[in-house]
Design a protein that fits this description.
The chain has 314 residues and is of the alpha/beta class. The chain contains 10 helices and 14 strands. The strands form 2 sheets. Strands 5-4-1-8-9-10-11-12-13-14 form a 10-stranded mixed beta sheet, with helices on both faces. β4, α2 and β5 form a beta-alpha-beta unit. α9 crosses α10.
Length: 314
């Protein structure tokens, strides 16, 4: 497929990563700022896609001073964007790292409200640019939008010949499957939550991926953190084994995997190659501190180290 990969982030954020020796509840805590950066699944995917030398356009809703910061950050990284403005300020999320215990705590706000009528603005942009392209839909839904939002968007995008990659959780993920997206990428916890079953090993992950595929997704990738990922598609099933790295932060690793998967889908190189690209990008992001994303040079070094093996789907 030609043209840039589009990403849609309906509920973006500014991610603030702070570090402290030990957090004391109910007391004054003086922290160090580790990073302050644009965040959100689709935005992160666009940023990694751009770093890996491919074209992308980031879409979604932003508002207020934090929304302006997101625009500025993407401009700095030369990531094209076409956001729609909303009256409320884009949310600020906090990632707290305690060095004494190596404990990480994430504090997420619900986000700026989006009136359902505003989806018409977004859909108009997509009609202009999404025909025949890969579109990544990622992240939580903002207040005001129904849990069927991703389902509705995928249905409309499929009419345009677009192929959709969905990275969502909970009810939004459960509902979108019936729209038959090209690929969904839950992590182990998200897949287990939708299916109501435990996923504790590769065999269970493979069974879960096959079930999500049966429910409608053309391909399914279940990310397993440092253990890699399991992918099932029309051409078979594979286990990607992540290269061993010194993990400094996993924030954005799943979004980086989505970037690799979307690139392979757009370039029509197959799910196995998508798993390889995505696993290298995810590991590269895990090597970076705070909320930073993978660097091109780390990706290039890690890609040959990704292990791949075919799995039986019988």
């Amino acid at each position: 497929m030609s043209g840039p990969i589009l990403t849609v982030t309906l509920n973006p954020a500014v991610d603030e990563a702070i570090a402290i020796d030990a957090f004391v509840l109910g007391d004054v805590n003086r922290c160090a700022l580790a990073s302050l950066d644009a965040g959100g699944k689709g935005l992160n995917a666009s940023r990694v896609i751009r770093r890996l030398g491919r074209e992308t356009i980031a879409l979604g809703f932003v508002g207020g001073v934090t929304g302006a910061m997101i625009r500025s950050r993407l401009d700095e990284e030369r990531v094209p964007h076409a956001f729609d403005d909303v009256p409320e300020m884009t949310r600020l999320n906090v990632m707290l790292y305690e060095s004494a215990s190596a404990r990480r705590t994430r504090i997420y706000l619900p986000g700026a409200s989006v009136d359902p009528s505003r989806l018409l603005d977004l859909e108009a942009r997509l009609r202009e640019s999404a025909r025949g392209r890969v579109v990544v839909l990622g992240g939580s839904l903002p207040p005001g939008l129904p849990e069927t939002t991703y389902y509705d968007l995928v249905c409309r995008l499929r009419e345009l010949g677009a192929r959709c990659v969905v990275d969502a959780s909970g009810a939004a993920l459960a509902r979108v499957l019936a729209a038959k997206p090209a690929l969904v990428k839950p992590d182990v916890e998200e897949a287990a939550g939708v299916l109501g079953t435990a996923i504790e090993n590769d065999e269970q992950a493979l069974a879960a991926a096959r079930e999500l595929q049966r429910l409608g997704a053309e391909s399914v990738v279940i990310s397993q953190g440092a253990q890699g990922a399991i992918g099932v598609g029309p051409g078979g099933a594979w286990k990607a084994v992540a290269p061993a790295v010194e993990a400094r932060s996993t924030v954005g690793s799943g979004d980086s995997m989505v970037a690799g998967l979307a690139i392979a889908l757009a370039e029509e190189t197959g799910l196995e190659q998508g798993l390889r690209l995505g696993t290298a990008a995810g590991a590269g992001t895990a090597m970076t501190p705070a909320a930073h994303l993978c660097r091109a040079e780390d990706f290039d070094a890690l890609l040959p180290r990704v292990g791949m093996r075919s799995l039986s789907t019988s």
